[in-house]
Amino acid sequence: MVHQELRLTGSGGQGLILAGIILAEAALYDGLNVVQSQSYGPEARGGASKAEVIISSKEINYPKVIKCDLMLALTQTACDKYVDSIKPKGILVVDKSISNIPIREDITIYVVPIIETARNSLGYPMVSNVIALGTIYELTKIVSKTSLEKAICNRIPRGTEELNLKALEEGYNLIRNHKEECIGYGCRFN
Amino acid sequence: MVDKNIKLMQGNEACVEAAIVAGMKFYAGYPITPSTEIAELSAEKLPRVGGRFIQMEDEIASISAVIGASIAGVKSMTATSGPGFSLKQEGIGYAVITETPCVIVNVQRGGPSTGMPTAPGQGDIMQARWGTHGDHSIIALYPWSVKEIYHTTIKAFNLSEKYRTPVLLLLDEVIGHMRESIELPKEDEIEIYNRKKPTCPPEEYKPYKVKEGDIVPEMAGFGEGYRFHVTGLTHDETGFPSNNGNIAENLIKRLVSKIEDNKDDIVEIDEYLLDDAEIAIVAFGSTARSAKSAVDILREEGIKVGLFRPITIWPFADKQLIELSKKVSRLVVVEMNLGQYYLAVDRVASKHTKVEKFGRVSGELITPQEIVDYIKEV
Protein backbone atom coordinates (compact mmCIF):
# COMPACT_ATOMS: atom_id res chain seq x y z
CA MET A 1 0.00 0.00 0.00
CA VAL A 2 1.21 3.46 -0.88
CA HIS A 3 0.37 6.39 1.36
CA GLN A 4 2.53 9.48 1.53
CA GLU A 5 1.74 12.95 2.79
CA LEU A 6 3.99 15.75 1.60
CA ARG A 7 4.17 19.39 2.54
CA LEU A 8 6.02 22.01 0.45
CA THR A 9 6.58 25.23 2.35
CA GLY A 10 8.17 28.59 1.72
CA SER A 11 6.96 32.00 0.73
CA GLY A 12 4.44 33.08 -1.87
CA GLY A 13 5.96 33.39 -5.34
CA GLN A 14 8.45 30.51 -4.99
CA GLY A 15 6.27 28.25 -7.12
CA LEU A 16 5.51 25.74 -4.39
CA ILE A 17 1.86 25.40 -5.25
CA LEU A 18 2.82 24.64 -8.85
CA ALA A 19 5.35 22.10 -7.57
CA GLY A 20 2.55 20.49 -5.56
CA ILE A 21 0.32 20.37 -8.62
CA ILE A 22 3.08 18.78 -10.70
CA LEU A 23 3.75 16.14 -8.07
CA ALA A 24 0.02 15.40 -7.78
CA GLU A 25 -0.36 15.13 -11.52
CA ALA A 26 2.59 12.75 -11.77
CA ALA A 27 0.97 10.52 -9.13
CA LEU A 28 -2.26 10.65 -11.10
CA TYR A 29 -0.40 9.46 -14.22
CA ASP A 30 0.88 6.58 -12.11
CA GLY A 31 -2.70 5.60 -11.36
CA LEU A 32 -2.68 6.65 -7.70
CA ASN A 33 -5.28 8.64 -5.77
CA VAL A 34 -4.22 12.16 -5.01
CA VAL A 35 -5.39 15.32 -3.31
CA GLN A 36 -3.46 18.55 -3.66
CA SER A 37 -4.32 21.58 -1.56
CA GLN A 38 -2.68 24.75 -0.40
CA SER A 39 -2.92 27.52 2.08
CA TYR A 40 -1.64 31.03 1.84
CA GLY A 41 -2.34 34.48 3.14
CA PRO A 42 -4.13 37.29 1.32
CA GLU A 43 -0.88 38.54 -0.29
CA ALA A 44 -0.04 37.81 -3.96
CA ARG A 45 3.67 37.46 -3.17
CA GLY A 46 5.59 37.06 0.06
CA GLY A 47 3.86 35.75 3.13
CA ALA A 48 3.85 32.12 4.13
CA SER A 49 2.84 29.63 1.46
CA LYS A 50 2.20 25.94 1.83
CA ALA A 51 1.27 23.31 -0.72
CA GLU A 52 0.20 19.86 0.32
CA VAL A 53 0.00 16.62 -1.58
CA ILE A 54 -1.47 13.35 -0.38
CA ILE A 55 -0.70 10.37 -2.58
CA SER A 56 -2.37 7.07 -1.78
CA SER A 57 -3.42 3.76 -3.23
CA LYS A 58 -6.56 4.09 -1.06
CA GLU A 59 -9.40 6.60 -1.17
CA ILE A 60 -8.41 9.94 0.40
CA ASN A 61 -11.05 11.50 2.65
CA TYR A 62 -9.53 14.18 4.85
CA PRO A 63 -7.87 16.41 2.25
CA LYS A 64 -5.22 18.08 4.38
CA VAL A 65 -1.91 16.86 5.72
CA ILE A 66 -1.84 16.35 9.47
CA LYS A 67 1.57 14.69 9.84
CA CYS A 68 3.82 14.59 6.82
CA ASP A 69 6.23 11.95 5.61
CA LEU A 70 8.28 14.56 3.82
CA MET A 71 8.50 18.30 4.16
CA LEU A 72 10.33 20.80 2.00
CA ALA A 73 11.19 24.18 3.49
CA LEU A 74 12.59 27.02 1.40
CA THR A 75 12.39 29.69 4.12
CA GLN A 76 13.34 29.83 7.77
CA THR A 77 9.86 31.00 8.79
CA ALA A 78 8.14 28.09 7.05
CA CYS A 79 10.69 25.62 8.40
CA ASP A 80 10.20 26.76 11.99
CA LYS A 81 6.44 26.88 11.64
CA TYR A 82 5.92 23.39 10.26
CA VAL A 83 8.89 21.28 11.37
CA ASP A 84 6.85 19.69 14.15
CA SER A 85 4.39 18.33 11.60
CA ILE A 86 6.94 15.83 10.26
CA LYS A 87 6.31 12.24 11.31
CA PRO A 88 9.05 10.44 13.26
CA LYS A 89 11.41 8.82 10.72
CA GLY A 90 10.18 11.39 8.21
CA ILE A 91 12.31 13.54 5.93
CA LEU A 92 12.97 17.26 5.94
CA VAL A 93 14.56 18.94 2.94
CA VAL A 94 15.71 22.45 3.73
CA ASP A 95 17.29 25.02 1.52
CA LYS A 96 20.88 25.89 2.39
CA SER A 97 19.91 29.54 2.86
CA ILE A 98 18.21 28.55 6.10
CA SER A 99 20.62 29.29 8.93
CA ASN A 100 18.90 27.72 11.92
CA ILE A 101 18.53 24.07 11.10
CA PRO A 102 15.90 22.64 13.42
CA ILE A 103 16.95 20.06 15.97
CA ARG A 104 15.04 16.82 15.60
CA GLU A 105 16.83 13.55 16.15
CA ASP A 106 13.92 11.44 14.96
CA ILE A 107 13.87 12.70 11.38
CA THR A 108 16.38 12.86 8.56
CA ILE A 109 17.32 16.34 7.44
CA TYR A 110 18.89 17.16 4.09
CA VAL A 111 20.36 20.62 3.67
CA VAL A 112 20.64 21.35 -0.04
CA PRO A 113 21.43 24.50 -2.04
CA ILE A 114 18.20 24.61 -4.04
CA ILE A 115 17.81 28.36 -4.47
CA GLU A 116 21.56 28.87 -5.04
CA THR A 117 21.62 26.20 -7.75
CA ALA A 118 18.64 27.77 -9.50
CA ARG A 119 20.20 31.20 -9.43
CA ASN A 120 23.87 30.40 -10.05
CA SER A 121 24.06 27.13 -12.01
CA LEU A 122 20.93 27.60 -14.09
CA GLY A 123 20.58 31.37 -14.00
CA TYR A 124 16.86 31.28 -13.27
CA PRO A 125 15.75 31.61 -9.62
CA MET A 126 12.22 30.63 -10.61
CA VAL A 127 13.18 27.00 -11.27
CA SER A 128 13.85 26.41 -7.56
CA ASN A 129 10.54 24.62 -7.34
CA VAL A 130 11.48 22.10 -10.04
CA ILE A 131 14.89 21.52 -8.47
CA ALA A 132 13.03 20.84 -5.23
CA LEU A 133 10.88 18.29 -7.05
CA GLY A 134 14.06 16.55 -8.19
CA THR A 135 15.24 16.24 -4.61
CA ILE A 136 11.86 14.89 -3.51
CA TYR A 137 11.88 12.32 -6.30
CA GLU A 138 15.37 11.17 -5.42
CA LEU A 139 14.44 10.77 -1.74
CA THR A 140 11.03 9.14 -2.06
CA LYS A 141 10.58 7.68 -5.57
CA ILE A 142 6.91 8.25 -4.77
CA VAL A 143 6.18 8.83 -8.45
CA SER A 144 7.83 7.44 -11.55
CA LYS A 145 10.43 9.51 -13.34
CA THR A 146 8.51 9.38 -16.61
CA SER A 147 5.34 10.66 -14.97
CA LEU A 148 7.18 13.44 -13.17
CA GLU A 149 8.81 14.65 -16.37
CA LYS A 150 5.52 14.45 -18.24
CA ALA A 151 3.71 16.39 -15.50
CA ILE A 152 6.38 19.09 -15.51
CA CYS A 153 6.15 19.54 -19.27
CA ASN A 154 2.36 19.68 -19.02
CA ARG A 155 2.32 22.47 -16.44
CA ILE A 156 5.18 24.82 -17.36
CA PRO A 157 5.21 27.54 -20.02
CA ARG A 158 5.94 26.20 -23.49
CA GLY A 159 9.52 26.66 -24.54
CA THR A 160 10.93 26.16 -21.04
CA GLU A 161 10.96 22.35 -21.17
CA GLU A 162 14.73 22.04 -21.56
CA LEU A 163 15.44 24.42 -18.69
CA ASN A 164 12.98 22.72 -16.37
CA LEU A 165 14.15 19.19 -17.14
CA LYS A 166 17.69 20.36 -16.51
CA ALA A 167 16.52 21.82 -13.20
CA LEU A 168 14.95 18.48 -12.33
CA GLU A 169 18.25 16.73 -13.08
CA GLU A 170 20.04 19.23 -10.82
CA GLY A 171 17.59 18.29 -8.10
CA TYR A 172 18.37 14.59 -8.45
CA ASN A 173 22.07 15.39 -8.26
CA LEU A 174 21.75 17.61 -5.20
CA ILE A 175 20.65 14.60 -3.22
CA ARG A 176 23.02 12.12 -4.89
CA ASN A 177 25.98 14.44 -4.31
CA HIS A 178 25.05 15.86 -0.92
CA LYS A 179 24.13 12.79 1.07
CA GLU A 180 26.95 13.55 3.49
CA GLU A 181 25.11 16.71 4.49
CA CYS A 182 22.19 14.86 5.97
CA ILE A 183 21.53 15.10 9.66
CA GLY A 184 19.71 12.99 12.20
CA TYR A 185 17.81 9.76 11.98
CA GLY A 186 18.54 7.39 9.14
CA CYS A 187 21.68 9.09 7.95
CA ARG A 188 24.52 6.73 7.28
CA PHE A 189 27.12 9.39 6.65
CA ASN A 190 27.48 11.23 9.92
CA MET B 1 -0.20 5.16 -17.09
CA VAL B 2 -3.93 5.74 -17.18
CA ASP B 3 -5.64 6.01 -20.54
CA LYS B 4 -9.14 7.18 -19.53
CA ASN B 5 -10.13 10.84 -19.57
CA ILE B 6 -8.87 11.33 -16.01
CA LYS B 7 -7.63 14.78 -15.13
CA LEU B 8 -6.18 16.57 -12.16
CA MET B 9 -8.60 19.41 -11.69
CA GLN B 10 -9.24 22.15 -9.20
CA GLY B 11 -12.72 22.36 -7.67
CA ASN B 12 -13.41 25.82 -9.05
CA GLU B 13 -12.20 24.64 -12.46
CA ALA B 14 -14.55 21.65 -12.39
CA CYS B 15 -17.40 24.04 -11.68
CA VAL B 16 -16.68 26.06 -14.83
CA GLU B 17 -16.13 22.98 -17.00
CA ALA B 18 -19.44 21.55 -15.84
CA ALA B 19 -21.29 24.85 -16.24
CA ILE B 20 -20.22 25.00 -19.87
CA VAL B 21 -21.32 21.42 -20.44
CA ALA B 22 -24.65 22.29 -18.77
CA GLY B 23 -25.10 25.08 -21.30
CA MET B 24 -23.88 28.21 -19.52
CA LYS B 25 -23.55 30.99 -22.07
CA PHE B 26 -23.32 34.01 -19.77
CA TYR B 27 -21.30 34.83 -16.69
CA ALA B 28 -21.28 38.14 -14.86
CA GLY B 29 -19.26 38.49 -11.73
CA TYR B 30 -17.04 40.47 -9.46
CA PRO B 31 -14.01 38.36 -8.52
CA ILE B 32 -13.47 37.54 -4.87
CA THR B 33 -11.26 35.00 -3.10
CA PRO B 34 -11.75 32.04 -2.92
CA SER B 35 -14.04 32.02 -5.96
CA THR B 36 -11.84 34.03 -8.36
CA GLU B 37 -10.79 31.06 -10.52
CA ILE B 38 -14.43 30.60 -11.52
CA ALA B 39 -14.50 34.12 -12.98
CA GLU B 40 -11.05 33.74 -14.58
CA LEU B 41 -11.87 30.46 -16.25
CA SER B 42 -15.30 31.62 -17.37
CA ALA B 43 -13.64 34.63 -19.00
CA GLU B 44 -11.25 32.31 -20.78
CA LYS B 45 -13.67 29.61 -21.83
CA LEU B 46 -17.02 31.27 -22.53
CA PRO B 47 -15.98 33.18 -25.67
CA ARG B 48 -14.79 29.85 -27.17
CA VAL B 49 -18.31 28.42 -26.96
CA GLY B 50 -20.06 31.56 -28.17
CA GLY B 51 -20.80 32.80 -24.67
CA ARG B 52 -20.21 36.10 -22.91
CA PHE B 53 -18.28 37.06 -19.81
CA ILE B 54 -18.67 40.42 -18.14
CA GLN B 55 -16.82 41.67 -15.11
CA MET B 56 -19.32 43.97 -13.47
CA GLU B 57 -18.70 46.87 -11.10
CA ASP B 58 -19.93 44.94 -8.08
CA GLU B 59 -21.91 41.91 -6.94
CA ILE B 60 -25.33 43.55 -7.11
CA ALA B 61 -24.73 44.46 -10.74
CA SER B 62 -23.44 40.92 -11.38
CA ILE B 63 -26.53 39.12 -10.14
CA SER B 64 -28.70 41.66 -11.97
CA ALA B 65 -26.88 41.02 -15.25
CA VAL B 66 -27.19 37.28 -14.72
CA ILE B 67 -30.95 37.61 -14.22
CA GLY B 68 -31.25 39.82 -17.30
CA ALA B 69 -29.30 37.37 -19.44
CA SER B 70 -31.44 34.48 -18.26
CA ILE B 71 -34.65 36.35 -19.09
CA ALA B 72 -33.15 36.87 -22.54
CA GLY B 73 -33.04 33.08 -22.83
CA VAL B 74 -29.46 32.28 -21.89
CA LYS B 75 -28.25 29.99 -19.10
CA SER B 76 -26.35 32.19 -16.67
CA MET B 77 -24.12 31.91 -13.64
CA THR B 78 -22.22 34.03 -11.16
CA ALA B 79 -19.81 33.12 -8.40
CA THR B 80 -18.81 34.88 -5.23
CA SER B 81 -17.91 34.44 -1.58
CA GLY B 82 -19.37 35.63 1.74
CA PRO B 83 -19.31 39.44 1.37
CA GLY B 84 -20.48 39.21 -2.24
CA PHE B 85 -23.10 36.63 -1.34
CA SER B 86 -24.58 39.17 1.10
CA LEU B 87 -24.78 41.76 -1.68
CA LYS B 88 -26.44 39.33 -4.08
CA GLN B 89 -29.33 38.57 -1.73
CA GLU B 90 -31.60 41.24 -3.15
CA GLY B 91 -31.08 39.89 -6.65
CA ILE B 92 -31.65 36.32 -5.48
CA GLY B 93 -35.07 37.38 -4.17
CA TYR B 94 -35.79 39.04 -7.49
CA ALA B 95 -34.88 35.81 -9.31
CA VAL B 96 -37.17 33.90 -6.93
CA ILE B 97 -40.25 36.04 -7.54
CA THR B 98 -39.62 36.52 -11.26
CA GLU B 99 -38.91 32.77 -11.56
CA THR B 100 -35.66 33.35 -13.38
CA PRO B 101 -33.36 30.33 -13.66
CA CYS B 102 -29.77 31.07 -12.67
CA VAL B 103 -26.91 29.54 -10.71
CA ILE B 104 -25.14 31.37 -7.90
CA VAL B 105 -21.93 29.79 -6.62
CA ASN B 106 -20.77 30.75 -3.15
CA VAL B 107 -17.27 29.52 -2.37
CA GLN B 108 -17.47 30.10 1.34
CA ARG B 109 -14.76 31.62 3.47
CA GLY B 110 -14.55 32.58 7.09
CA GLY B 111 -16.98 35.35 8.03
CA PRO B 112 -18.79 37.53 8.98
CA SER B 113 -17.90 40.47 6.73
CA THR B 114 -14.55 40.14 4.94
CA GLY B 115 -13.55 37.64 7.65
CA MET B 116 -10.83 35.24 6.53
CA PRO B 117 -10.53 35.39 2.72
CA THR B 118 -8.30 32.35 2.27
CA ALA B 119 -9.64 30.14 5.05
CA PRO B 120 -12.56 27.74 4.95
CA GLY B 121 -15.81 28.22 6.81
CA GLN B 122 -19.37 26.93 6.56
CA GLY B 123 -21.06 29.98 7.99
CA ASP B 124 -23.45 30.72 5.12
CA ILE B 125 -25.81 27.79 5.66
CA MET B 126 -28.68 29.85 7.03
CA GLN B 127 -27.91 32.80 4.78
CA ALA B 128 -28.35 30.46 1.82
CA ARG B 129 -31.76 29.48 3.20
CA TRP B 130 -33.03 32.84 4.41
CA GLY B 131 -30.63 35.47 3.07
CA THR B 132 -33.15 37.20 0.88
CA HIS B 133 -36.25 38.67 2.43
CA GLY B 134 -39.79 37.41 2.21
CA ASP B 135 -41.30 33.96 2.24
CA HIS B 136 -39.59 31.74 -0.27
CA SER B 137 -38.01 28.37 -0.75
CA ILE B 138 -34.56 27.84 -2.18
CA ILE B 139 -32.46 25.06 -3.66
CA ALA B 140 -28.89 24.81 -2.35
CA LEU B 141 -26.44 22.05 -3.28
CA TYR B 142 -23.28 21.22 -1.36
CA PRO B 143 -20.68 18.94 -3.02
CA TRP B 144 -17.77 17.38 -1.12
CA SER B 145 -15.26 16.61 -3.87
CA VAL B 146 -14.00 17.91 -7.19
CA LYS B 147 -15.85 15.12 -8.95
CA GLU B 148 -19.06 15.98 -7.17
CA ILE B 149 -18.67 19.69 -7.95
CA TYR B 150 -18.83 18.69 -11.61
CA HIS B 151 -22.04 16.72 -11.15
CA THR B 152 -23.77 19.17 -8.81
CA THR B 153 -22.98 22.13 -11.07
CA ILE B 154 -24.79 20.39 -13.92
CA LYS B 155 -27.57 19.49 -11.52
CA ALA B 156 -27.79 23.11 -10.34
CA PHE B 157 -28.38 24.29 -13.92
CA ASN B 158 -30.91 21.52 -14.56
CA LEU B 159 -32.89 22.24 -11.40
CA SER B 160 -32.85 25.98 -12.05
CA GLU B 161 -34.28 25.42 -15.52
CA LYS B 162 -36.80 22.82 -14.42
CA TYR B 163 -38.14 24.76 -11.43
CA ARG B 164 -37.44 28.26 -12.77
CA THR B 165 -35.60 29.31 -9.66
CA PRO B 166 -32.17 30.48 -8.58
CA VAL B 167 -30.05 27.54 -7.43
CA LEU B 168 -27.22 28.03 -4.98
CA LEU B 169 -24.07 25.96 -5.16
CA LEU B 170 -22.18 26.12 -1.89
CA LEU B 171 -18.53 25.15 -1.95
CA ASP B 172 -15.98 25.14 0.83
CA GLU B 173 -12.79 27.08 0.21
CA VAL B 174 -10.93 23.78 0.60
CA ILE B 175 -13.04 21.98 -1.99
CA GLY B 176 -12.97 24.94 -4.41
CA HIS B 177 -9.21 25.26 -4.23
CA MET B 178 -8.00 21.70 -3.96
CA ARG B 179 -7.10 19.49 -6.86
CA GLU B 180 -8.28 15.96 -7.22
CA SER B 181 -8.61 13.42 -9.96
CA ILE B 182 -11.79 13.47 -11.97
CA GLU B 183 -12.91 11.27 -14.79
CA LEU B 184 -14.88 13.49 -17.12
CA PRO B 185 -18.11 11.90 -18.31
CA LYS B 186 -18.79 11.61 -22.02
CA GLU B 187 -21.34 14.00 -23.49
CA ASP B 188 -23.95 11.28 -24.02
CA GLU B 189 -23.72 10.31 -20.34
CA ILE B 190 -24.85 13.76 -19.22
CA GLU B 191 -28.49 14.72 -18.92
CA ILE B 192 -29.26 18.36 -19.67
CA TYR B 193 -32.58 20.01 -18.91
CA ASN B 194 -33.66 23.12 -20.80
CA ARG B 195 -36.49 25.45 -19.79
CA LYS B 196 -39.84 24.84 -21.45
CA LYS B 197 -40.67 27.54 -23.97
CA PRO B 198 -44.15 28.65 -25.01
CA THR B 199 -45.66 27.25 -28.21
CA CYS B 200 -48.79 29.40 -28.19
CA PRO B 201 -49.08 32.49 -30.41
CA PRO B 202 -47.42 35.52 -28.75
CA GLU B 203 -50.73 37.35 -28.25
CA GLU B 204 -52.05 34.46 -26.12
CA TYR B 205 -48.91 34.14 -23.96
CA LYS B 206 -49.38 34.59 -20.22
CA PRO B 207 -45.88 34.58 -18.74
CA TYR B 208 -46.92 33.46 -15.26
CA LYS B 209 -49.69 31.02 -16.03
CA VAL B 210 -48.89 27.41 -15.15
CA LYS B 211 -50.32 24.97 -17.66
CA GLU B 212 -52.23 21.94 -16.40
CA GLY B 213 -49.70 19.25 -15.51
CA ASP B 214 -46.70 21.61 -15.49
CA ILE B 215 -44.69 22.69 -12.45
CA VAL B 216 -43.78 26.18 -13.66
CA PRO B 217 -44.94 28.61 -16.36
CA GLU B 218 -43.41 28.32 -19.81
CA MET B 219 -40.63 30.83 -20.23
CA ALA B 220 -40.23 32.91 -23.36
CA GLY B 221 -36.96 34.73 -23.92
CA PHE B 222 -36.82 38.47 -24.49
CA GLY B 223 -36.35 39.05 -28.20
CA GLU B 224 -38.14 35.87 -29.24
CA GLY B 225 -41.33 37.65 -30.25
CA TYR B 226 -43.18 37.34 -26.98
CA ARG B 227 -43.89 40.60 -25.15
CA PHE B 228 -44.11 40.26 -21.40
CA HIS B 229 -43.59 42.21 -18.23
CA VAL B 230 -41.15 41.22 -15.52
CA THR B 231 -41.35 42.74 -12.06
CA GLY B 232 -40.23 42.11 -8.50
CA LEU B 233 -43.67 43.22 -7.38
CA THR B 234 -46.31 40.62 -6.68
CA HIS B 235 -47.89 39.91 -10.04
CA ASP B 236 -50.70 38.02 -11.73
CA GLU B 237 -50.51 35.61 -14.66
CA THR B 238 -49.89 38.47 -17.10
CA GLY B 239 -46.78 39.49 -15.22
CA PHE B 240 -48.18 42.90 -14.28
CA PRO B 241 -48.20 44.05 -10.64
CA SER B 242 -51.16 43.26 -8.46
CA ASN B 243 -52.06 44.07 -4.87
CA ASN B 244 -54.90 41.58 -4.80
CA GLY B 245 -54.56 39.45 -1.66
CA ASN B 246 -55.64 36.23 -3.33
CA ILE B 247 -53.25 36.69 -6.19
CA ALA B 248 -50.37 37.41 -3.80
CA GLU B 249 -51.23 34.44 -1.59
CA ASN B 250 -51.46 32.07 -4.54
CA LEU B 251 -48.25 33.30 -6.11
CA ILE B 252 -46.11 33.02 -2.97
CA LYS B 253 -47.57 29.62 -2.09
CA ARG B 254 -46.93 28.38 -5.61
CA LEU B 255 -43.31 29.62 -5.52
CA VAL B 256 -42.73 27.75 -2.26
CA SER B 257 -44.64 24.59 -3.12
CA LYS B 258 -43.03 24.09 -6.52
CA ILE B 259 -39.87 23.32 -4.54
CA GLU B 260 -41.20 21.88 -1.27
CA ASP B 261 -43.64 19.53 -3.04
CA ASN B 262 -40.92 18.16 -5.29
CA LYS B 263 -38.35 17.23 -2.68
CA ASP B 264 -38.28 13.65 -3.91
CA ASP B 265 -36.87 14.95 -7.17
CA ILE B 266 -34.65 17.68 -5.72
CA VAL B 267 -33.22 16.28 -2.50
CA GLU B 268 -30.15 14.12 -2.85
CA ILE B 269 -28.42 12.55 0.11
CA ASP B 270 -25.53 10.18 0.58
CA GLU B 271 -25.41 7.60 3.34
CA TYR B 272 -22.38 5.76 4.69
CA LEU B 273 -22.68 2.78 7.03
CA LEU B 274 -26.01 3.88 8.46
CA ASP B 275 -27.78 0.50 8.31
CA ASP B 276 -26.69 -0.70 11.73
CA ALA B 277 -25.52 2.65 13.10
CA GLU B 278 -26.27 3.63 16.69
CA ILE B 279 -24.76 7.06 16.25
CA ALA B 280 -25.13 9.14 13.07
CA ILE B 281 -23.02 12.09 12.02
CA VAL B 282 -24.67 14.72 9.84
CA ALA B 283 -22.13 16.65 7.77
CA PHE B 284 -21.67 18.19 4.33
CA GLY B 285 -18.85 19.46 2.12
CA SER B 286 -15.29 19.12 3.38
CA THR B 287 -16.50 18.42 6.92
CA ALA B 288 -18.20 15.27 5.65
CA ARG B 289 -14.84 14.01 4.38
CA SER B 290 -13.44 14.28 7.90
CA ALA B 291 -16.60 12.67 9.23
CA LYS B 292 -16.23 9.73 6.85
CA SER B 293 -12.69 9.11 8.10
CA ALA B 294 -13.96 9.45 11.67
CA VAL B 295 -16.62 6.81 10.96
CA ASP B 296 -13.92 4.43 9.70
CA ILE B 297 -11.74 5.01 12.76
CA LEU B 298 -14.65 4.53 15.18
CA ARG B 299 -15.88 1.43 13.37
CA GLU B 300 -12.43 -0.13 13.79
CA GLU B 301 -12.90 0.36 17.52
CA GLY B 302 -16.28 -1.34 17.36
CA ILE B 303 -18.39 1.82 17.72
CA LYS B 304 -21.31 1.70 15.31
CA VAL B 305 -21.28 5.09 13.64
CA GLY B 306 -22.55 6.15 10.23
CA LEU B 307 -22.65 9.29 8.10
CA PHE B 308 -25.68 11.11 6.74
CA ARG B 309 -24.52 13.58 4.09
CA PRO B 310 -27.03 15.94 2.50
CA ILE B 311 -25.85 16.93 -0.99
CA THR B 312 -28.99 19.04 -1.29
CA ILE B 313 -28.94 21.03 1.95
CA TRP B 314 -32.03 23.07 0.99
CA PRO B 315 -34.83 22.14 0.68
CA PHE B 316 -34.33 20.19 3.88
CA ALA B 317 -34.32 16.38 3.93
CA ASP B 318 -36.76 16.27 6.86
CA LYS B 319 -38.36 12.96 5.85
CA GLN B 320 -35.03 11.13 5.75
CA LEU B 321 -33.76 12.75 8.95
CA ILE B 322 -36.90 11.96 10.94
CA GLU B 323 -36.59 8.36 9.82
CA LEU B 324 -32.92 8.30 10.81
CA SER B 325 -33.63 9.93 14.18
CA LYS B 326 -35.89 7.01 15.07
CA LYS B 327 -33.05 4.53 14.54
CA VAL B 328 -30.08 6.15 16.30
CA SER B 329 -29.40 7.19 19.87
CA ARG B 330 -27.32 10.23 18.89
CA LEU B 331 -27.34 12.56 15.90
CA VAL B 332 -24.18 14.64 15.80
CA VAL B 333 -24.20 17.61 13.42
CA VAL B 334 -20.63 18.53 12.52
CA GLU B 335 -20.12 21.80 10.67
CA MET B 336 -17.58 24.63 10.43
CA ASN B 337 -19.84 27.10 12.23
CA LEU B 338 -21.38 27.37 15.67
CA GLY B 339 -24.47 25.33 14.86
CA GLN B 340 -26.56 26.38 11.86
CA TYR B 341 -27.68 23.20 10.12
CA TYR B 342 -27.94 21.86 13.67
CA LEU B 343 -30.97 24.13 14.16
CA ALA B 344 -32.77 22.54 11.23
CA VAL B 345 -31.83 18.99 12.25
CA ASP B 346 -32.75 19.60 15.88
CA ARG B 347 -36.17 20.92 14.84
CA VAL B 348 -37.17 17.66 13.19
CA ALA B 349 -35.10 15.07 15.06
CA SER B 350 -35.09 16.06 18.73
CA LYS B 351 -38.43 14.35 19.33
CA HIS B 352 -36.84 10.96 18.72
CA THR B 353 -33.15 11.24 19.56
CA LYS B 354 -30.45 13.34 21.14
CA VAL B 355 -29.24 15.97 18.66
CA GLU B 356 -25.79 17.43 19.27
CA LYS B 357 -23.60 19.98 17.56
CA PHE B 358 -19.87 19.98 17.09
CA GLY B 359 -18.25 22.82 15.22
CA ARG B 360 -15.48 25.35 15.02
CA VAL B 361 -14.90 28.74 13.40
CA SER B 362 -11.10 28.94 13.45
CA GLY B 363 -10.66 28.87 9.69
CA GLU B 364 -9.25 25.35 9.96
CA LEU B 365 -10.85 22.11 8.92
CA ILE B 366 -12.28 19.90 11.60
CA THR B 367 -10.03 16.83 11.66
CA PRO B 368 -11.24 13.22 11.77
CA GLN B 369 -9.56 12.78 15.17
CA GLU B 370 -11.43 15.74 16.65
CA ILE B 371 -14.72 14.15 15.61
CA VAL B 372 -13.62 10.79 16.99
CA ASP B 373 -12.65 12.39 20.31
CA TYR B 374 -15.92 14.29 20.54
CA ILE B 375 -18.02 11.22 19.89
CA LYS B 376 -16.10 9.13 22.40
CA GLU B 377 -16.01 11.78 25.13
CA VAL B 378 -19.68 12.70 25.19
Provide key terms for this protein.
heterodimer, A: 190 residues, alpha/beta, Pyruvate-ferredoxin Oxidoreductase, domain 3, seven-stranded mixed beta sheet, B: 378 residues, Rossmann fold, five-stranded mixed beta sheet, 13 helices, 14 strands
Written overview of the protein:
The complex is a heterodimer of chains A (190) and B (378). By secondary structure, chain A is of the alpha/beta class. Chain A has one domain: Pyruvate-ferredoxin Oxidoreductase, domain 3, CATH 3.40.920.10. Helix content of chain A is 37%, strand content 26%. Chain A has a seven-stranded mixed sheet with strand order 2-3-1-4-5-6-7, with helices on both faces. The N and C termini of chain A lie far apart (31 Å). Chain B is α/β, with parallel strands linked by helices and 378 residues long. In chain B, 38% of the residues lie in helices and 18% in strands. In chain B, the strands form three sheets. Chain B has a seven-stranded mixed sheet with strand order 3-2-4-5-7-6-12, with helices on both faces. A five-stranded mixed sheet of chain B has the order 9-11-10-13-14, sandwiched between helices. In chain B, strand 6, helix 6 and strand 7 form a beta-alpha-beta unit. The radius of gyration of chain B is 21 Å and the shape is globular. The mean pLDDT of chain B is 97. Chains A and B meet through helix 1 and strand 2 of A and strand 1, helix 7, strand 8 and helix 10 of B.
